[in-house]
Amino acid sequence: MSISSLLKKRLLKRESLPLILNEAVNFEKKAIFIAIPKTGTTTVRTQLRQLGEAIIPNPHLNIMQIRDTLYTYFLKMSLRKNLEYPTKEILTDLDIRINSQETFNSFFKFSSVRNPWARAVSLYFRREGVPTSKKISFTNFCENHLFASDTCRQPTLHRNQLDWLVNESGDIIMDYVYKVENFNEAIKEINDRTEGRVQLKYLSANTNPNSKSKSYHDIYTDQTRKLIAKRFEKDIDTFKYTF
To answer: What is the reported pLDDT for 209?
Structure first.
């Protein structure tokens, strides 16, 4: 098959897919899941994502980015070919903004967080993104581990997990934030809070057999434990984690 034929086939496939905002947003279930890297998000995203071509494919957007992209999504959906005269049923910009804000307010917004010490070990041993465990020592990693998405394929400057969940004033604007360590209990809570719209199951997804995050205590020294405690103090205090 020629290159032009392949490109045409891909374009036709894209045209056949519905437009979605991002895999974080499920319009059928009226839910928004903020996927903080290395907090068990693959399990949830696999079950929650809708089929379609995403405006922004990156799954790890924060809550403010989702809120603002909702306007772009509804704007894109409202722009279509004019097939009649007089023109009818076209939304004004104000209508689009109101629609996006009402959608954001009414959707169930939830996320997961993880023990910062265990999460640091998971980032260190990760296979995708920037693998570091075979290149530098864990002590060296902790000394340079400044941001919550360090070693991720698509890094951002979120310093803490909390940064994914807050508004401009630093207030958490999520309806529910659970600890990935308590996922089984969270499944029932999410089902109850959404009146059955979001029914999750425990799935083992994207697990790394080489990671030592489950026995993370063993890899730490007093020095590295204190480094993580100081670096991610905000997460530790907010979500009441202990070593």
So the answer is: 57
